Each structure stands twice: as structure tokens, then as C-alpha cells.
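Course assignment 3, question 2. Fill in each field.
Student: A.L.
Task: Predict the tertiary structure for the chain below.
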Amino acid sequence: MTLKTALTASLLFVATISLSVPSGAYSEKNIITSAIDSLRLDLSPVTGEGWLPYPDYNDRKAWDALFGDAAGTMIAEGEKYLGYRWKVIPATAYLEYERSGDRQVMERPYDENRMALNMLALAELAEGKGRFIDDIANGLWYTTQMTSWVLSAHQPKQSSARALPDAREQIIDLGSGGLGASVAMIRHFFKNELDALDPSISAAVDSSLYRNIIDPYLDENLHEAHWWLAEDWKPGQIVNNWNPWCNSNVLLCALLTEKNPAVLERILRYSAQSVDRYLNYIKDDGACEEGPAYWGHAAGKLYDYLKILSYATAGRTEMLLRHPLVRSMGEYISRSYIGNGRVVNFADAGAMMTPDNSLVYRFGQDCGSREMTDFALYLLYDGESFSHPSVTPGNDIWRSLESVRCHGTLSKAADSLNALCGLAGSSAPEYDGSRPSGSQTLASLREDVPACTWYPETEFAYMRNGSGWFLAAKGGYNNESHNHNDIGTFILYINDDPVFVDAGVGTYTKMTFSHERYTIWSMQSSWHNLPEINGCAQIFGDEFRASGTICDIRRRMFSTDISGAYSDASQCSSWVRSYRLGDGFLEISDKFSLDARVAADTVNFLVHGNVTIGENRREVLVEAGEVIVSLHYPSSLKPSVAYRTIDDPRMTAVWGERLARISFVSTPDAPKDGKYVFRVTLAGN
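Answer field:
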């Protein structure tokens, strides 16, 4: 029996079905509404809340089985919030967004309150003794008395255009939708216990859900404020993670609150039409142009939406979870994972993250991806054995409860792997060398991930060689969701150590999503692995695009003409950036043609580590962790290095205190036509 065959017994695999998907940007697929129309769904049974796949609060045997060995941890976490003092968010906390651009001063107490409410509820579901009910009631009561559930950074979408909530108008954003979903679910589980305290609590919850979620969602006058609905989508407009994120939360609120089947059907159909616009916008290759950090909010929230819909329709829409596009969107997270907590981080994405293994596993089960379920198990390895998963913490109670439902299955799979390998914590006999080792098992869990992946519509290329080198490169255009001006850039990791990097994004402020966005250094092409052509950097805008992008994954080659990403001032008619990943090298070439030479070219590389410019050889040494590489450069270019101090906590957590930019500058009178070739090897090779 092969190792792969042995592992099969630990995993649930659902075969995918084949559906045709047209290619091209924003194609009218409309897969959700088409399914709803064909099924002629009757939502009358849904209004009784019996669709929710969880036991009643008082069914202690069922909850004990669901939580399993995670119950003690969940109760202990909830105990930290017993007697919690609910944090008041003053007017000045909202106004600070206008005054300084700081959104955290409002979001921190908001998130702490939401976390407290969710953890108290989860602890009570795990224990069932009533110890947490008073604090849950306090949290619900406080929440229902808030003027608005919307975050300060998103309030300016209201008619006043101010950051302070206007009680005369309610809109829906990521914060209000998520908080509404939590409030609705908590009311569902504990309604009898809350009514025993005072029925006014449940009445206040219902009233606030209609005021903050259901009524605004159906208000046609708010369609402009609710841009994420993509109601009047036009070419050039972005449809991003807000769409499935908000729609999934609204649908959940409605299914748990609305008793009128006609209204509920209206909400379901309206949400389906909106989420279809998101799927129409997504490229047919399934890549997340927002980056892996947003995968859980983009593809992950699409999965949540489809799963909620499947539950509510007694599984009749389950086939949507197995649509090829949905599966491709899911597998993007597995393929974007480099190793050791590092991921491909184009756009506003951090370079370090640990995907939610429960979400990955459930998504993989439902879409029929062995690659994803294997990846979820891979993420459970702690260096010694495959650990039992924890219940997903945080402020998303739907995700937490779904991870509770998955806990037993995932724990058993981890136990099977430990037994297979004779690892710590298993009941298998002492390891005698005849079974696979932990490292062999880990490798097998990544066998289904292709060495190279090409996303032809999004224009992302991922390539691995047999020497532990990982290259990611991109084409695309400079108005992608969470865009950086980065057409043609790349990152390179060797044995999971970052060498050539993308800095990512700092802590969000008002500037991040304003007309000043591209004054931020990490958004600029000059701080990516890209050239300044004739003294010019890349420009933001939908029209600034790559062209002629090709990828040959068999030969591990990628190239794209990036001249279209620069203004006319660059005088550039062609600039083809190419990458070739060999078994022990990376070759980077820039073949260019200018209409006129008006300034020097500068080719920049952003690296993580210490840089030494050689005196007698045309090479620059980069010491990055355990790796030292040599960057060989053309004799016509002059190298220099500048270190960038990193003081933003979101970035220092990834890169430490600094990054280095190596710049190679041509002479001001360099030829108009030419080629720059750089070669990266391990030092001494």
C-alpha cells in the first residue's frame, strides 16, 4: 500500500461535477440564480429556523459530542469575559477617522466587544450551565442600544458623508453585517433563557436587526451607499470581498429573523443576484487578485454564502459548491502557500499568515478537492505530530460554529495520520522504521499541488523547482482590487526563506483608501521588483495594463510587456520583463525599446536581508536568513543599496525593522534599445 493510498482512509473526498464556464472578464455566468430558477425553491419551511444545522441549546449530549476535547478550552476562553465591562465608543472615536485618519481608535473597542459576545456565547454552548447568560444578555443589550453597527471608516458612505453615525440613516458594511449575524445567531440559541430574564431583550434584538440589516438591505435608495451589491456594475468597476462577505451575513440574519416567506424569498433572490455579479467579475481561473490574506473573506465568504444557502434549501443547491470555478477559487489558497507560514502577497496582503484549517478542510470537502483537505491536515502539523484543531476563534460566530461541527472529523483525521506514522500522541506501536516519517507524510499531503500553476486571466504564475526555489510573478493591470502599482513584479523564496519580496501593506488608515493611496511607499512600483523606465514609475488606473503575457510552466518561463503600465512620459514602446527559473538559478531580463532617451533607467529589487555590493565582481550578495544569494548584473548598470526602516507594526511583524532596496542605474545616455539581464544563484555557484 502506498502512503497516498493509506492517507485516503483519513479523508473525505467528494467528486466534482463538470460544468462549463465561459472565459473572459465579467462573463454572465449567473450560476446561483440559474440554479434557484431551475429548482423553483419554496422557502416557506425555512421561516421556522429549523434549517440551522445545530442542536438546541438544551441538547447537551449533542453539544458535548460536537465540541469534543475542545470544550474545556472554549469554556476557559469564555471565562476570561465573565463580568466583562462593555466598552463605550465615544463620538470622538468616530471623528478621529476624519481628524487624523486613525480608524483603530474606534475599531479596537468595537472588535473587543464583538469578540467578548461571541466567546461568551460559544462558552455557554460548550458548557450549558447558564453561567454566561447574564453577560450574554448584557452584550446583546449594549449592542442593540448602539446608534449604528457600521465602522467609522465606512460611515462616510451615508448621506452626511461623515464618520459619526447618523441615526436617521442606516447602511450596511463589513462590521454591521458581521455583528448582525452574531446577534441573530446568539438570539436564536438563547432566546428562551433571555426571555426568562426579560422578553425585552429579544424584542430589542429583533428591532435592531430590522433597523440595521434587513430594512437597509431592501431600501433601494441605499444602493449607491451599498456599492458592494454591484447593482449597476460597469466595466472598470471592482467587485471585491465585500460582496460575498456582506451578502452572506445579510442572508444569515434574514434566515434567522424574517418570518414572511415572500420577504425572505426577495432577500434570497436579491442576494443571489448580487453574489452572481461577484462570480461574474471573478476571473475564470479562480485566482484571488486581492491576495491570500483576503482569501478567507473573498472565496471563503463565498463558500459561507453557498453553504448557508445549501443548508436553507435542504441541500438542493449543494451542487453550486462543486462548481469548477468555486473549486478553483478554493484551491488558490493551497497553491499560494509557500511554506513555513509564508504566502504569495501581491496587493494588500501580508506575506505571513496561517490559513484557517477548518475552513480549508470544509471547503475542500464540499467542493471535492483532495488538495484542500490534505492542505488543511498539513496545517495541523506542529513539528512533532498532527495536533487536534482548535475551534476557530474570533468575531465570526458562524465560522466558529462551523469549525465546531468539523472538529470531530478533523481530529480523527489527525489521529489517523499520527497512528500511520507512529507519531507522538498516537496509540500505534513504537515507531520501527517501517512506517512513513512525519516529514514524508507532510510531503505527501502536498503531492496534489502542482509544481507550477498558471492563472491565465489574472496573470499570476507560481513556479517551484526541485531545489526549494519558489517564484511568483504577475502581469495584470493597475486597478485590481487592493491594487499596488506592480505589473511585472515577482517574489523569490528559497527553502521558504524570503529573498526578493513584496513589502505588502501597513496598518490601514484613511490614506490607504483615499486619493493619497499612491503616496504610500509600499504601493509604488519603485518599491517593487520593477524598473523605473526613462526615470518614470508605473501609474495607477484601469488602462495601465500588461500585454502579451505568456507563461510556459513546463519550461518555467514567464514574460509580459509592462510598457503599458507607464505614462507617455516614459517614451517606452516596449519593455518585456521575463523570468526563467532553472534548477539552481533565476534569470531576470528586461528587453526594451524607447522612442527617445530622456533619463536613466533604474531597475529596483526589494530584498529581505543584508546586502553587500562586490568590489571586483559584477555581483551583489544578499544574506537572507539561512540563504546567501548572488545577484549578477550587467556591466552597464551601477548598483547601490538603500535600507528602508520599517516602523509600522503590521509590517514589522513580517519583516522586522528594515528592508533593503537594491537599485541598478543606467547612464543617462544609455541606448534606446537594449536588454538588461540579471542572474540569481546561490553564493559561490
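Instructor remarks: The longest strand covers residues 572-581. The chain has 18 helices and 21 strands.
Grade: pending
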